[in-house]
Amino acid sequence: ELKVEQNPLFLSMQEGKNYTIYCNYSTTSDRLYWYRQDPGKSLESLFVLLSNGAVKQEGRLMASLDTKARLSTLHITAAVHDLSATYFCAVPITRGGSEKLVFGKGMKLTVNP
Amino acid sequence: DSGVTQTPKHLITATGQRVTLRCSPRSGDLSVYWYQQSLDQGLQFLIQYYNGEERAKGNILERFSAQQFPDLHSELNLSSLELGDSALYFCASSVQAGVRNEQFFGPGTRLTVL
Predict the structure, then answer these.
(1) Phi, psi for residue B108 in degrees, rounded to 5
(2) CB contact under 8 A, A106 and B55
(3) In contact, B111 and B21? CB cutoff 8 Å
(4) Higher pLDDT, A16 or A51
(5) How far apart are alpha carbons A11 and A13 in whole angstroms?
(6) Which of A31, A110, B26, B32 could anchor a disulfide with B3, C-beta 3.0 to 4.6 Å?
(7) Between B101, B102, B108, which is nearest A42 by CB?
């Protein structure tokens, strides 16, 4: 059974600082998704990583995927308060031609002024 | 805004009752997925429909059922509700059912069982 683990689960950081968060998964997958969720809101797609070595950047966030290590990282550069949210990684699992997403527990980020 | 709509936004009901959650996929999407987000279990896949037919099943309780109608909207029916069913229920949609189809999530329905 596919397990997706995020590390850390809680992070409090100061504005202007950098940090990297990790997402490990237990079985082979060549794709991974990152989502952002604000409290009580829906999942907002941040990054779709489609192959080994994929790197994508949007603003202060950069995500990468290493399928051999079964690891994705989400790097935060010069954090700002608006980045405070919960971040989920999700790995697709395919069975019988269909696909479902298996999510990590999420990392709650608080950026303090 | 993903283009996926869900109603109602909030639902408060009592134990033992039955409720129906509704989802309309993005225009052109044939596949609908239901997920449950709870404090205990996190985000879990429940069930997937494609063009009216059940395609995949996850950790869905027997008290829960779903269907997808000819106009492609979907309903998730939850019956004999228990306190532990309180959660955010998300619907997602994708163009097709197979692999490499990105899922787009709706705003969710928050269910509170008292």
Answers:
(1) 90, 155
(2) no
(3) yes
(4) A16
(5) 6
(6) B26
(7) B108
For residue B87, the cross-strand partners are B111
Strands B19-24, B42-50: parallel, antiparallel or unpaired by DSSP?
A: unpaired
**Helix (H), strand (E), coil (C) string for chain A:** CCCEEEECCEEEEECCCCEEEEEEECCCCCCEEEEEECCCCCEEEEEEECCCCCEEEECCEEEEEECCCCEEEEEECCCCHHHCEEEEEEEEEEECCEEEEEECCCEEEEEEC
Q: What whole-number distance in Å separates Cα of residue B103 and Cα of residue B91? A: 9
Instruction: Provide the β-strand partners of residue A62.
Output: A57, A75
SS3 B21: strand
Q: Does A94 touch chain B (CB under 8 A)?
A: yes
A41 to B108: CB separation less than 8 angstroms, yes or no = yes
Of A88, A73, A69, nearest in space to A18 by CA? A73
Give residue-wise pLDDT tens across range A31-77: 999 999 999 899 999 999 988 888 999 999 999 999 999 999 999 99
Rounded CA separation B109/B15 (Å): 17
User: How far away is chain B from the Cα of A94, in angstroms, using its nearest Cα?
Assistant: 7
| Helices of type H across chain B | none
Chain B contact for A33, CB < 8 A? yes
Position A18 scores a pLDDT of 97
Asked if the C-beta of B101 comes within 8 angstroms of chain A's C-beta atoms, the answer is: yes
**Strand A10-14 vs strand A107-112: parallel, antiparallel, or unpaired?**
parallel
